[in-house]
Design brief:
Layout: H1 4-14, E1 21-23, H2 30-43, E2 45-50, H3 58-69, E3 72-77, E4 80-84
Parallel strand pairs: 1-2
Antiparallel strand pairs: 2-4, 3-4
């Protein structure tokens, strides 16, 4: 689990990032989860946008993505979800203690 200080740090790190995945009316599927897991391994911190035509609640999508990818849900703001998962191979983000 992330501390409040770590979440604040990750939010500031994610501020300049662009969303690299979009959840549309099809919702979350297995292929998307696999792609997000791979992106998290490379980048550690990613943004996912929820499109207007998505029928599911963005909070539920955020929780589902975090659970299925074993990532930490950093933030849901507007229609943007920020996820973090420490990389096994490419650790680049140093979290504050």
């Amino acid at each position: 689990m992330l501390t409040g200080k770590q979440k604040r740090f990750l939010r500031s790190e994610a501020h300049h990032l662009n969303p690299i995945f979009q959840v549309g009316k099809g919702g979350v599927n297995e292929h998307m989860v696999k792609s997000i897991e791979e992106a998290l391994e490379v980048r550690e911190l990613i943004k996912v946008s929820v499109l207007n035509n998505c029928l599911e609640d963005k909070e539920n999508i955020a929780r589902q993505l975090a659970d299925e990818t074993d990532a930490e849900l950093v933030q849901v703001i507007g229609k943007i979800i920020v996820l973090y998962k420490q990389s096994r191979e490419n650790k680049t983000i140093e979290l504050p203690v």
